[in-house]
């Protein structure tokens, strides 16, 4: 573990606990022969000796935790180890008793422990996602791997039992009210009142949805604190660490609340493109498109949480300037621009590539026919469909796929988000069904028509079939059938169409502007 970007080395206040940290720091420096850095948060100290990070909890009693007793700190260390080894086993090593005295502490040994330390692997400075983002070195592949890892983590996490309070409307609204109460001293009363009114109104509107989410198993034992300072690049992947161990209610949450933290934080740091990309990848892996109904509420809540914690740490001199999280909460609460875009084009025309770029720039939720078709038959995106008993590309399966896409698009539109439906849409009846959906929802309807020379289409399809790195299984035979038989766009459809020649350089910003300007 390394010191986080918004922390700084602090002088030690004269207290028995701080004296122990002073003694422990000196002991580690003597044992290792290296300088040992000290990092302080509002609930712990961390000593960095160049190989390990030694985390000692402060004997504090705050509104949301009580570590005043040694036994509570021991239990907290053991819980932190157990819970964080779910996602970061390479970082979290063990809990080590501290013996001796404050002036002459020993790690391990015998006798009666005077304190406990959580031993972790120290990672390199600059490896936090917040630091990578600031340095401009955060790759999109890292975001993709993180989304896949968290989707798998959420799928494997246990679901909350019905009799528990976790994820219930009362618990959700109480948590929000508590955070807003804490913000009273940090921001203007009018701002807090406005946010309270919005959260209360949304809480009433979403009450039945919260109940249904828990009944369907979406409230699970997650991470609870997935912001950029709790994510680190290790090797070619991203690891989440420092989950919430001190309050089960803060980690037994809707999975949408877990991922809302990261999407919010990326947005607050000016990288909404990465936020939409992460969300796209996570939704593709989980299929939880219906869950976006609660996503905006949780994103606002997470912004308020981060605002509160950052304010507390700044008051203690433990944080420097950072994003305006209250402003982020207000912008997220005011957001909402539901609109519907469908792609149109033959296999190899670049529909998915263009859709990916547009969703990142414009901000949208995508539904891919290739992925949803396979999901209907219990397949993962890269699974081959040949072993499946039923032909997943038969006309009946195609009708089921477009019905699923239409139902999911309706749910996302109802949540107030722009939607991109990434499918071939080679039949007029398929396009008409989505045009009617847009009419029913009262949102703009746009067709994104992608085309390229037939020779280029054949080359792309052949290359993709060779790579086998995409959900699409369309081969040259499929492409030849499409070239011979497809319904051209009608004059009326041309009026709502954005045409893209994917042989030419792609101006994704121009495409996004045209789509967002549609009325």
From TrEMBL:
Task: Supply the Gene3D superfamilies for this chain.
Answer: 3.90.1200.10, P-loop containing nucleotide triphosphate hydrolases
Origin, by domain of life?
A: Bacteria
Q: Which InterPro entries match?
A: Cell-binding_unc_protein, Kinase-like_dom_sf, P-loop_NTPase
Please give the name of this protein: Aminoglycoside phosphotransferase
- Which species is this record about? Thiomonas arsenitoxydans (strain DSM 22701 / CIP 110005 / 3As)
């Amino acid at each position: 573990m390394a010191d986080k970007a918004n922390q700084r080395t602090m002088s030690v206040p004269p207290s028995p606990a701080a004296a122990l940290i002073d003694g422990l720091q000196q002991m580690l420096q003597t044992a290792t022969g290296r300088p040992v850095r000290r990092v302080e948060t509002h609930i712990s100290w961390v000593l960095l000796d160049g190989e390990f990070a030694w985390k000692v909890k402060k004997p504090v009693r705050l509104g949301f935790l009580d570590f005043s007793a040694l036994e509570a700190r021991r239990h907290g260390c053991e819980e932190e180890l157990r819970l964080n080894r779910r996602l970061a086993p390479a970082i979290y090593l063990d809990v080590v008793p501290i013996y001796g005295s404050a002036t002459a502490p020993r790690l391990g040994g015998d006798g009666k422990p005077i304190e406990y330390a959580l031993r972790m692997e120290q990672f390199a400075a600059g490896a936090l996602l917040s630091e990578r983002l600031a340095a401009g070195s955060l790759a999109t592949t890292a975001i993709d791997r993180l989304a896949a890892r968290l989707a798998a983590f959420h799928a494997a996490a246990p679901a909350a039992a019905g009799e528990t309070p976790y994820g219930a409307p009362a618990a959700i609204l109480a948590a929000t009210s508590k955070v807003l109460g804490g913000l009273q001293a940090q921001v203007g009363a009018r701002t807090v009142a406005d946010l309270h009114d919005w959260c209360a109104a949304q809480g009433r509107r979403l009450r039945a949805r919260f109940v249904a989410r828990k009944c369907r198993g979406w409230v699970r034992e997650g991470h609870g604190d997935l912001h950029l300072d709790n994510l680190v690049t290790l090797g070619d992947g991203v690891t989440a660490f420092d989950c919430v161990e001190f309050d089960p209610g803060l980690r037994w949450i809707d999975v949408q609340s877990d991922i809302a933290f990261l999407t919010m934080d990326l947005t607050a740091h000016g990288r909404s493109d990465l936020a939409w990309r992460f969300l796209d990848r996570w939704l593709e892996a989980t299929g939880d498109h219906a869950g976006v109904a609660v996503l905006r509420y949780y994103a606002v809540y997470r912004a308020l949480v981060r605002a509160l914690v950052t304010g507390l740490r700044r008051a203690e001199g433990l944080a420097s300037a950072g994003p305006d999280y209250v402003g982020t909460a207000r912008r997220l609460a005011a957001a909402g621009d539901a609109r519907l875009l469908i792609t149109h084009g033959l296999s190899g025309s670049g529909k998915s590539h263009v859709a990916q770029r547009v969703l990142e720039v414009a901000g949208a939720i995508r539904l891919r026919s290739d992925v949803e078709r396979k999901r209907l038959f219990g397949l993962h995106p890269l699974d081959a469909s040949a072993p499946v008993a039923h032909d997943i590309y038969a006309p009946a399966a195609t009708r089921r796929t477009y019905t699923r896409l239409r139902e999911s698009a309706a749910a996302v539109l109802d949540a107030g988000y722009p939607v991109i439906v990434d499918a071939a849409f080679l039949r007029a009846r398929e396009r008409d069904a989505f045009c009617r959906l847009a009419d029913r929802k009262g949102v703009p309807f746009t067709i994104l028509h992608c085309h390229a020379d037939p020779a280029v289409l054949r080359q792309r399809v052949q290359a993709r079939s060779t790579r086998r790195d995409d959900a699409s299984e369309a081969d040259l035979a499929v492409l030849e059938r499409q070239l011979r038989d497809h319904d051209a766009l009608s004059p009326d459809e041309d009026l709502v169409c954005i045409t893209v020649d994917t042989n030419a350089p792609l101006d994704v910003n121009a495409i996004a502007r045209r789509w967002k300007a549609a009325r």
